[in-house]
Amino acid sequence: MADLEKAILIVFDQSGTVHSELKQKATEYCEKIKDEQAICSICIERICFSNLYQVQFWCLQTLHEVVKVRYSSTSPDERYLIRKSVFSIACFGAIDDNNVVRVLKGPAFIKNKLAQVLVTLIYFEYPSIWSSVFVDFLSQLSKGAMVMDMFCRVLNALDDEVINVDYPRTPEELSVATRIKDAMRQQCVPQIVRAWYDIVSMYRNSDEELCTTVLDAMRRFIAWIDIGLIVNDAFIPLLFDLVLVDGLCEQLRGAAAGCLTAVVSKRMEPQSKLSLLQSLQICPVFGLVAKDSDSDLVSKVGALLTGYAVEALECFNNLNSEDAKGVSMELLNEVLPSVFYVMQHCDLESTFSIVQFLLGYVSTMKTISQLRETQLHHLGQILEVIRTEIRYDPMYRDNLDTLDKIGKEEEDRMVEFRKDLFVLLRNVGRVAPDVCQMFIRNSLAASVASSSDWNVEEVEAALSLFYAFGESMNGEAMKTGSGLLGELVPMLLSTRFPCHSNRLVALVYLETVTRYMKFVQENSQYIHMVLAAFLDERGIHHPNVNVSRRASYLFMKAVRLLKLKLVPFIENILQSLQDRVAGFTSMGYTSKDLSASEDGSHIFEAIGVLIGMEDVAPAKQSDYLSSLLTPLCQQVEALLMNAKVLTPEEAPQKIANIQQIIVAINSLSKGFSERLVTTSRPAIGLMFKQTLDVLLLVLVVFPNIEPLRSKVTSFIHRMVETLGASVFPYLPKALEQLLVDSQPKELVGLLVLLNQLICKFNTLFSDILDEVFPAIAGRILNIIPIDSFPSGPGTNTEENRELQEVQRTLYTFLHVITTHDLSSVFLSPKSRSYLQPIMQLLLFTSCKHKDILIRKVCVQIFIRLIKDWCAMPNGEEKVPGFQSFIIETFATNCCLYSLLDNSFEFRDANTLVLFGEIVLAQKVMYEKFGNDFLVHFVSKGFPAAHCPQDLAEKYCQQLQGSDIKALKSFYQSLIENLRLQQNGNLPVR
Questions:
Q1: Do the Cβ atoms of 288 and 298 come closer than 8 Å?
Q2: Residues 809-815: what's their mean pLDDT?
């Protein structure tokens, strides 16, 4: 036995001085001991006679494993030994009393493990084998506080391990829990409740810790025992007395409050619940919430009051009689002020549950046609609670302003925490809009009146309330300025808070101004105030760069909304933005700033929208645009001229600067429509063409700088939309340059650009496409496999993922070509050599690709090509060999053999769409090829698939008919029948 104790001590050693090999040997030794026949006797002896807690714990843990895992295989004698010994240990039984006392005097984890062993025995043996366990335990309580404590630990473990439904339970465990509860109700629950009462009454002044333990156990059981055992003239006064007496410890008082919460929350009929709530006389508890807000007692009392309010509200909603509703509302009105106080001063957990209750309360208020003064007052109190809860803690002020790691975490937490509170605010706004607006007005007014920057959190909360309230307003109410909105928006626009330099305040201010922009749209007299808010130090000129960039974006949104109304202000706006425009494209940016600084490009988009309107005089418009484009292009030209003499240190900064300029021009062009630049004011179009000429030089000078290629590609996209067909002369050179040394990622971008051009111009683009297609096809077919990509460990590389993206985009490209009447491109002399590999690639993909949607696209391409290239009027083949390829290869492989594979899952929605396209392909082939297709498909394909003759004949009838739905249904049934015969093993040929 000494060896076992030594091994256990080594296993549990936490000092780090024991070698891992020795610890492993000790573990193996202990595991081996567990397999011995007499392990139960060994463990019981060590529990009783060892002085070491580690040994006692290991032995109890082993007994627990034996009972839990091997109960059915243990002998009746072993079970009796475990039952008798463990129960004796728990109750100061007959096994060497001196040593047993040492077990119960040990640390809590030993006693909890002992309780767990007992509960596992109860799980298997109560009441059929060990029916007297609880009665026997009750008879032992006279031995004193330690046995009483142990009894409570057993009850708590019973709740944790078996009864409590908050934990996931199997059907078997739920059945056992029901069996145990039913037996306890019938046999011993009244005696247990009586024991609780006696212990608490006797020990309340001498052993508060024991009483707390008893009440904690009792709280767990109230949900399923007869409530009459608790709600009576003895127990309820005792619980209230414990809660209200000042001299007792907070833990005991909190435990009593927890029991009352369990009583209040007990499930029962609404009328019975209302009677229960009335009988509790809870008012004396209200005063306790004004105590120390961080205390455990206030938290528990807060949960009690919230639970009480929740139940009173449920009674109001579920009872129909006016008298009952009146009583419910009266109880609710009594408790609500304390609930509001709790929410403002208690911990987060209580706050969350109270928010859910308040949402329910406001929802109930919606059903009342005429709210009373008390209810309106309560809604106002709810708003006060919301304002309190959404305030940031001043201790994080600096962190939030600089947005360091702590500030970011706090901001993210608050964003999540506020969600339900803002839902609550909007609901109040819908139920009592006047109350809500007056509250926000007073909050804003108080913030405005403050003359110092100490109230950052107050101002931010007031603005956040006003912002969130806007979500509850419809567009019409926003435009007309219903209620106090006509006062609130001008107040907002005219305000400069002392703490406006704070990042949070500045951001929420701008977001709120933007939210109420529809009001300004209808009330033009406030436009100058809006412009001031965006253009001065509150917005784009704010010292914090993040605020400034966000202001740029929001200003652009405002400009797009107000548009025409801003024409008189263009000069002033451009003048105000002059420094920001210059700063955006200055040499001061480094590559690491680039992604963030691009946010400032919204200034150029806003300017573009302003000066791109036809309402601007043509001469003015040309001047405005020229004053912006000319210096930007000159900067690019200067940088390109000096590119060859750039040092490695200078190059990144210059390249970043070019990127900035391209982004700026790109954003600027978004404000100009194709009609304006090509038809009504071609001089504007000429400026953009000249700009395009300059920027295309970037591809020549810096052919291998991916970020620059990406930016230029993006600008070409923009010019396609802006210049229309007049962009054509620039495309051959641009596309050729984009193809030079292009990497897979860049090829994807090039294909996307071509897709845009084809979709916009259709056959007008055919000549240019004829020129570029061979180079593109050759480049792509050279880097992607004709069949599948490699799979398995080590193949999911960045390179493979990029190539797969190229392949996916290629299929889209081919689909766009065929669906825009451009399939003749494949047949041009320069492209003809790529026709066969493209057909093979499409064939393999339509049959075997893992992505069903890509297979569908390939089948659609074939359908379109069949329509375009087959059945010429004179019977001559447009593409020699294509018809036989379709009939002999595509039809049988894609339309038959690929469907016989079990991976073709008819229950999948996308697969059904693909199947529909395959059926349609057969219909099109029959229409174009007639019996040439049908005879080959039925005589060659079906026999290989072992298709019965009668089904083949029926297929011919269905195909020749006009009902495509019936053909689809029949063909699915045919494939499923063939699968049963083939077992999905027919290969694609």
A1: yes
A2: 96
pLDDT digits (tens, 9 = 90+) for 248-264: 898 999 999 999 999 99
Phi, psi of 474 (to 5 degrees): -80, 170
Phi-psi region of 725 (alpha: psi -120 to 50; beta: other; left: phi over 0): alpha
Cβ atoms within 10 Å, residue 693: 13
Average pLDDT over residues 45-64: 88
* CB-CB contact of 857 with 811 (8 Å): yes
pLDDT tens-digit map of 532-572: 999 999 999 999 999 999 999 999 999 999 999 999 999 99
Residue 868: both structure tokens together: 């375009």
Which residue's entry shows tokens 């807000």? 293
* Per-residue tokens: 865: 């090509």
Per-residue model confidence (pLDDT) at position 508? 95
Amino acid at 445: A
How distant, in Å, are the alpha carbons of 368, 656, 925, 969 from that of 272?
24, 74, 75, 60
Percent of the chain with pLDDT over 70: 95
- DSSP-assigned letters across all residues of 923-967: HHHHHHHTHHHHHHIIIIIHHHTT--HHHHHHHHHHHHSS-HHHH
Reference 675, options 611, 710, 725; nearest CA is 725
Query: Are 664 and 601 contacting, i.e. CB atoms less than 8 angstroms apart?
Result: yes
Confidence of residue 634 (pLDDT cuts 50, 70, 90): very high
pLDDT digits (tens, 9 = 90+) for 510-540: 999 999 999 999 999 999 999 999 999 999 9
Helix (H, G, I), strand (E, B) or coil at 986: coil
Token pair, residue 544, equals: 């914090």
pLDDT of residue 243: 93
SS3 403: coil
Nearest residue to 890 via CA among 951, 956, 936: 936
Question: What is the pTM assigned to this prediction?
Answer: 0.80
d(CA 711, CA 363): 52
Cα distance between residue 745 and residue 756, in whole Å = 17
Distance, in Å, from the CA atom of 268 to the CA atom of 33, rounded to the nearest integer, reads 52
Do residues 815 and 861 touch, judged by C-beta distance below 8 A?
A: yes
Give pLDDT, residue 989: 43
The pLDDT-based confidence of 350 (bands split at 50, 70, 90) is low
The pLDDT mean for the chain works out to 89
Kind and range of the H or E run holding 268: none
Q: Is 398 left (phi over 0), alpha (psi -120 to 50) or beta?
A: alpha
For residue 194, pLDDT over 90 is answered with: yes
CA distance 363 to 943: 69
Question: Whole-angstrom Cα distance, residue 347 to residue 706?
Answer: 53
d(CA 444, CA 421): 19
Give the 3-state secondary structure percentages of the chain, helix then strand then coil, rounded to 5: 80, 0, 20
Element (H, E) at 877: none
Residue at token pair 């333990």: 213
Q: Give just the sign of the alpha carbon dihedral 590, 593, 595, 596.
A: negative
CA–CA separation, 270 and 318 (whole Å): 7
**What is the pLDDT at residue 98?**
53
Q: What is the 3-state secondary structure (H, E, C) of 649-688?
A: CCHHHHHHHHHHHHHHHHHHHCCCCHHHHHHHCHHHHHHH
Q: Please tell me the predicted confidence (pLDDT) of residue 915.
A: 95
CA 578 → CA 64, 75, 596, 603, 613, distances in Å? 78, 92, 20, 10, 20
Q: Would you give the DSSP letter of residue 890?
A: I
Query: Residue written as tokens 């920057």?
Result: 453
What is the C-alpha separation between 255 and 523, in angstroms, rounded? 60
What is the C-alpha to C-alpha distance for residues 55 and 50, in angstroms, rounded to an integer?
7
Amino acid at position 111, single letter: K
Confidence band for 787, pLDDT divided at 50, 70 and 90: confident
373-390 and 456-469 are packed helices; what angle lies between their axes, rounded to 10 degrees? 120
